[in-house]
Amino acid sequence: MPDFSPGSRVRDLVELGERGRKLLWDHGYDLGEGFVDNLSQYETLEEAARGGRLRDLGPLLEELNRVR
């Protein structure tokens, strides 16, 4: 499994399943019901953080890359 970086896509976390969805939620990113917005799926984590949709990018990346 690849390392996650600020350039990773929101979609990459969604593909992790429940763990990825929970991490996004814990860091303020609400996927909503069904996550059908194609543009949001391909947004990078850095873009989401700059746009205020994601909190604490550094700790999120640390958690993602710690134990998989």
Please summarize what this structure is.
The chain has five helices and no strands.
Q: What report would you give on this structure?
A:
The chain has one domain (10-66). The longest helix is centred in the C-terminal third of the chain and has 10 residues, at 57-66. The chain has helices at residues 10-14, 18-26, 38-41, 45-50, 57-66. It is mainly α. The model has no long low-confidence stretch (mean pLDDT 85).
Summarize this structure as a short list of keywords or feature phrases.
single chain, 68 residues, mainly alpha, 5 helices
What portion of the residues fall into strands of 2 or more residues? under 5%
Taking all Cα atoms into account, the compactness measure Rg is 11 Å
Shape: globular
Largest sheet, in brief, is: none
List the helices and strands and how they pair.
Layout: H1 10-14, H2 18-26, H3 38-41, H4 45-50, H5 57-66
